[in-house]
Amino acid sequence: MSQNDPPDATLSPENFRAIRDMLADRVGVSLGDDKHYFVVNRLTPLMRTYGLASFAVLVRELRFHARSALWEEVVDVLTVHETSFFRDEAPFCQLRDEIMPAICRDAERDQRTIRIWSAGCSTGQEAYSVAMLLMELSPDVASRARILGSDVSSKVLRSAKLGCFRPMEVDRGLSKRRLHRFFKPVTGTWQAIEPLRAMIDWQHVNLTGSWPILPRFDLVLLRNVMVYFEPSTRDALIQKVHSQLQPSGRLVIGSAESLMGCQHSFRVVSSNGATHYVA
Predict the structure, then answer these.
(1) CA torsion, ordered 126, 117, 259, 74, to nearest 10 deg
(2) Does residue 40 come out as left (phi exceeding 0), alpha (psi in the -120 to 50 range) or beta?
């Protein structure tokens, strides 16, 4: 077919299961049986772009071209990129008042760089929020910190690295004080200032696949990611994260997530309406 011809948007149960199973195998994301329309809605425009006549053709392409640009775009459109600055107030208060000071003391004692990982960071608001907290805590502390922002989507990482956010995005979670301190207006957007951007490294990481060589972290933020994973995938991921932490390193997960029923070696710490986990 040509790119001007509309693809056949009929998605058979067999092809839906094939797409769902390949996505789960590739990035760990589990789509429920109720996501049939979601898959059709998200993938039909992509099929048109690539000149694919039907979902059967798409499935064949995905099976035989597992490292193609098409696969990257499928992952991008079928994964959730919902995020905002300082998302959920209580965890960030706990970060500011308890976790960050403890991490700073540990790093100062051992004379090492503070390392923080924002995993599944989407367009980067969480990583930038952590960077702002560190700069507010102490410019000296911030100068000795490295933040890794990672995601399975290269597209959102390119946006995160640029650090430009639309007015509707900065309105979600950023106070006016922080906006004018840490951002500058750039052609209809607000861009994070260079010292803030310089604190963060961006890297493509598939959390359920093979990881690149990573350092030991003082803090891992794995928030609102595991909700899309099967329990076995979640359990394996938690074990990998634990092994990637410094002794007494901290793990923060989403407010709607829990490690209940998961075999883990973390100590649970709850205070001020939030919970985190200590290795």
Answers:
(1) 70
(2) alpha
Pick the closest to residue 10 from 59, 54, 58 (CA basis): 54
Q: HSE of 10 in the Cβ direction (CA atoms, 13 Å)? A: 2
Task: Give the DSSP per-residue string, 149-201.
Answer: EEES-HHHHHHHHHTEE-HHHHTTT--HHHHHHHEEEETTEEEE-HHHHHTEE
Pairing of strands 183-186, 189-192: antiparallel
Q: Which residues of 9-34 are buried (b: 16+ CB within 10 A; e: fewer)?
A: eebeeebbebbbebbbebbbbebeee
Side chain identity, residue 125: Q
Per residue of the chain (279 residues), give pLDDT as tens.
555 666 777 899 999 999 999 998 888 888 888 999 999 999 999 999 999 999 999 999 999 876 678 988 998 889 878 899 999 999 999 999 999 999 988 888 888 899 999 999 999 999 999 999 999 998 888 888 999 999 999 899 999 999 999 999 999 999 999 999 999 999 999 999 999 999 999 999 999 999 999 999 999 999 999 988 888 999 999 999 999 999 999 999 998 888 988 888 899 999 888 999 999
Cβ atoms within 10 Å, residue 139 = 10
Six token digits for residue 159:
């946006």
pTM, to two decimals: 0.90
CA Rg value for the chain? 20
d(CA 162, CA 124): 10
Q: Residue 120 phi/psi, 5° resolution?
A: 65, 50
User: In the numeric block, which tokens belong to residue 136?
Assistant: 């507010």
Q: At what angle do helices 55-64 and 13-27 cross, to 10 degrees?
A: 30
Q: What angle do CA 83, 86, 92 make, to 5 degrees?
A: 130
Element at 140 (helix H, strand E): helix 139-143
